[in-house]
Design goal:
Elements lengths: L3 E2 L2 H18 L5 E7 L3 H16 L3 E2 L2 E3 L5 H13 L5 E4 L9 H7 L11 H9 L7 H12 L8 E5 L6 H10 L3 E5 L6 H5 L4 E4 L17 E4 L3 E3 L2 E3 L4 H4 L5 E2 L6 H26 L1
Parallel strand pairs: 1-12, 2-3, 2-4, 2-5, 6-7, 6-8, 8-9, 9-12
Antiparallel strand pairs: 10-11
Helix pairs in contact: 1-10, 2-10, 6-7, 6-10
The structure holds NADPH dihydro-nicotinamide-adenine-dinucleotide phosphate and 5,10-Methenyltetrahydrofolate.
Length: 284
């Protein structure tokens, strides 16, 4: 029997409804500052989508578009401005940055309480300690999607392919927090297919088009495809969906899977960050 398709678009729409409701309860609308440097076409599409959904949820869109040749000091000053601006409750620095800029340095400047991408050292530390904080959007979206699909994580074998700061590593930590037994694979993993076949829940986030085939999947497993690639034949993920769907129990499509959940979680983090700001103001 072919796999159940996990509908990320529907899950994201549901989540956005809840977020709009939460926004309406806040004393002030949250403000999201998306920072786009240069004109990478894929980044422009994602940022446009984030901004549109931010406005639809009743939040303020405080976008900054900066030239590709902006200097590091100048961009740092923009981040400092956004940190200091009380109307800005969330800051997202869209990656990748042009090559002459050091992303790690710039991310480190973001106020952790406004870090809606969950990428600052403070956010990473809070996640590692299980302390309250802002979690990276894509892994948080994957957990929300698994919960909604009724996938049990406690005691499950979870395998994550990829160990980036943006996706793989925080994904592994969130799965661990939910009491899964977690294996993390990467480019130096010796026998990827064997490692992946352990998985009750397989998360593909390696960034290689259709690299996960039916040989990587235990019959009945849940397969979450984080990858996103533009090819001549359209969008595809890291999973060869058509063949894997014959083996898996459930699978996320690309598009319409993890992508929409990433943006919904960004909105959710922006609401959380606005609550942090409220609490700080109340304490003053
Ligand atoms: N849908 C969404 O919302 C999002 C989608 N993405 C997509 O997810 C994918 C991953 O993104 P990101 O984590 O940023 O990518 P990175 O390129 O930063 O990381 C890729 C990871 O995969 C590992 N890897 C590479 N090749 C192999 C291989 N042959 N076997 C096993 N592991 C391998 C790398 O290992 P090593 O560390 O050893 O180099 C690395 O850890 C991309 O397609 C990206 O576009 C990303 C963010 C959000
Ligand atoms: N600081 C930072 N934070 C990020 O979260 C971040 C980033 N940089 N850089 C790039 C990746 C990629 N990413 C996606 C977001 C939405 C979709 C998405 O909505 N995808 C739709 C399709 C959209 C389309 O047509 O391209 C879908 O899968 O259905 C995909 C990918 C966030 N990223």
């Amino acid at each position: 029997m072919p796999a159940t398709i996990i509908d990320g678009k529907a899950a994201a729409a549901e989540l956005r409804q809840r977020i709009s409701h939460d926004v309406a309860q806040l004393p002030e609308p949250p403000g999201l500052a998306t920072v786009l440097v240069g004109d990478d076409p894929a980044s422009a599409v994602y940022v446009a989508s984030k901004r549109r959904q931010c406005v639809q949820a009743g939040m303020r869109d405080l976008h900054r578009h900066l030239p590709a040749d902006i200097g590091a000091a100048e961009l740092a000053a923009v981040v400092d401005d956004l940190n200091a601006d009380p109307a800005v409750t969330g800051i997202l620095l869209q990656l990748p940055l042009p090559r002459h800029l050091d992303a790690a340095n710039l991310i480190a400047r973001i106020d952790p309480d406004k870090d809606v991408d969950g990428l600052t050292i403070a956010s990473v530390g809070r996640l590692a300690l299980g302390a309250p904080g802002l979690r990276p959007c894509t892994p948080a979206g994957v957990i929300a999607l698994l919960d909604r699909a009724g996938v049990r994580l406690e005691g499950a074998e979870a395998v994550v392919v990829g160990r980036s700061h943006l996706v793989g590593k925080p994904m592994a930590q969130l799965l661990l927090e939910r009491n899964a037994t977690v294996t993390v694979c990467h480019s130096r993993t010796r026998d990827l297919a064997t490692a992946c076949r352990r998985a009750d829940v397989l998360i593909a986030a390696a960034g290689l088009p259709r690299m996960i085939g039916p040989d990587h999947v235990k019959p009945g497993a849940t397969v979450i495809d984080v990858g996103i690639h533009r090819t001549d034949a359209g969008l595809c993920g890291d999973v060869d969906t058509a063949t894997v769907a014959e083996v898996a129990g459930a699978i996320t499509p690309v598009p319409g899977g993890v992508g929409p959940m990433t943006i919904a979680m960004l909105l959710s983090n922006t609401v959380t960050a606005a609550r942090f700001a409220d609490r700080k103001n109340a304490a003053v």
